[in-house]
């Protein structure tokens, strides 16, 4: 393979990025039968447990379903952000591992179905503003009904997810097509599409999180809620991406991913867990200082009735442990330690969403039905909902990985990525 200078159609010199002419051989992938069967088994078991939960405590099962559906939709869109950032910054190092987050974005259509199912069937168990009789007695809910109404809720959900699906599909289509024709114009086109996506994402992620999570407590508000959700989604997406890369590498499918790629993924987990903590503390301190009843109620609910231990554990699991474990350079180059930290961060992300959903829905259920439903609950509904969606997520993502080469074989930055060192 000759080391010659390559130019994009707009005159951009790729030699500065270490790119070379030519291309590498495609890297095929086929999902191992045991992985496919395990994922299917987990999904089926999860469906059974979730169904049992629906029969016994519907409100709790729908709450667990919302946690699971939101978890994987945000992981998927977080992966799209990773892809978009790679395109916009022309990051050569990540080309070798880029097909993994590209495949993760294909969950979005299924994610739309899961969100529609959970929020559609569980609407009245989840959202106080969906009850006309309660709205009629509450001036603030009447005032907010311009946005918080069932038709508008679902129209925005479908519109936002369709926008995400379309933009990620375009970027993925260009990436896959380049494997066939090697046209560098596709690289430049994805820079433009990624820029558009990031702008759209910044606006729609805020709208989505306000609808799907914040409106669980319609009297509460936070101006930092959207960026808080983005921070959590991004760090979780990097963690899932790392686990998939490690799995592919261990299976012998992606030997091109070297310790330097793992190091960069470790740095991303380190950085975004700290960014998440910064936003968490900023939101908490602003509300604590202001001491406005409409705002402080959110934290009071989560610091009483047995929630305090989980409230504190949220910060420890999502930031303190990953920070100190990933701080030394050798640790970010240790596959086993990286895998452990990634699993820890995903546990933390689930807990973070759980703490946003369950205290709100249990509080609403307790007051609406005049029953005692306060305090943390964990059992079959929570396990079942997560297992069901997680199993389907693995099936979808691994199936998409098998549709194209595991590395973008004719990307102009591929050689830089293959020889990445730091």
Please write out the topology.
Elements: H1 33-56, H2 58-88, H3 99-104, H4 108-121, H5 123-126, H6 132-136, H7 139-144, H8 150-181, H9 185-212, H10 225-250, H11 259-290, H12 293-301, H13 308-326, H14 335-369, H15 380-401, H16 414-418
Helix pairs in contact: 1-2, 1-15, 2-4, 2-9, 2-10, 2-14, 2-15, 4-8, 8-9, 9-10, 10-11, 10-14, 11-13, 11-14, 13-14
Give a description of the structure.
- This protein is mainly α and 422 residues long.
- The protein has one domain.
- 71% of the residues lie in helices and 0% in strands.
- It has 16 helices and no strands.
- It has helices at 33-56, 58-88, 99-104, 108-121, 123-126, 132-136, 139-144, 150-181, 185-212, 225-250, 259-290, 293-301, 308-326, 335-369, 380-401, 414-418.
- Helix 11 (259-290) packs parallel to helix 14.
- The longest helix is centred in the last third of the chain and has 35 residues, at 335-369.
- The chain is globular.
- The protein starts with 32 loop residues before the first helix and ends with a helix.
- 44% of the residues are buried.
- The model is unreliable at 1-13 and 15-21 (pLDDT under 50).
């Amino acid at each position: 393979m000759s080391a010659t200078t390559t130019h994009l159609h707009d005159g951009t010199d790729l030699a500065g990025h270490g790119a070379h002419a030519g291309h590498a051989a495609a890297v095929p992938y086929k999902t191992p039968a045991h992985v496919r069967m395990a994922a299917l088994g987990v999904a089926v078991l999860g469906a059974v447990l979730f169904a049992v939960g629906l029969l016994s405590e519907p409100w709790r099962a729908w709450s667990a379903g919302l946690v699971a559906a939101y978890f994987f939709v945000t992981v998927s869109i977080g992966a799209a952000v990773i892809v978009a950032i790679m395109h916009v910054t022309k990051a050569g190092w990540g080309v070798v591992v880029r097909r993994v987050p590209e495949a993760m974005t294909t969950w979005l259509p299924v994610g739309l179905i899961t969100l529609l199912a959970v929020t559609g069937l569980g609407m009245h168990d989840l959202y106080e503003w969906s009850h006309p009789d309660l709205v009629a007695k509450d001036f603030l809910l009447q005032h907010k009904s311009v946005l918080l109404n069932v038709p508008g809720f679902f129209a925005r959900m479908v519109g936002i997810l369709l926008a995400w699906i379309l933009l990620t599909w375009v970027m993925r289509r260009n990436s896959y097509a380049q494997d066939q024709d090697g046209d560098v114009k596709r690289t430049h086109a994805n820079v433009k599409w990624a820029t558009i996506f990031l702008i759209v994402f910044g606006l729609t992620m805020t709208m989505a999180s306000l609808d799907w999570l914040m409106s669980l407590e319609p009297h509460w508000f936070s101006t930092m809620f959207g960026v808080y959700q983005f921070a959590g989604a991004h760090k979780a997406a990097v963690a899932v991406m790392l686990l998939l890369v490690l799995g592919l590498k261990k299976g012998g499918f992606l030997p091109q991913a070297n310790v330097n790629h793992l190091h960069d993924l470790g740095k991303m987990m380190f950085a975004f867990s700290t960014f998440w903590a910064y936003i968490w503390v900023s939101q908490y301190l602003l509300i604590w200082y202001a001491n406005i009843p409409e705002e402080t109620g959110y934290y009071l609910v989560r610091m009483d009735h047995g929630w305090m231990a989980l409230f504190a554990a949220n910060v420890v699991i999502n930031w303190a442990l990953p920070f100190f474990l990933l701080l030394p350079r050798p640790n970010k180059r240790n596959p086993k330690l990286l895998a452990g930290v990634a699993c820890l961060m995903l546990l933390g992300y689930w807990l973070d969403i759980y703490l946003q959903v369950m205290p709100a829905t249990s509080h609403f259920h307790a007051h609406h039905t005049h029953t005692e439903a306060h305090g943390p609950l964990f059992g079959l509904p929570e396990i079942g909902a997560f297992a069901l969606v997680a199993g389907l997520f693995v099936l979808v993502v691994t199936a998409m990985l098998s549709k194209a080469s595991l590395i973008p074989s004719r990307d102009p930055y591929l050689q830089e990525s293959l020889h990445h060192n730091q």
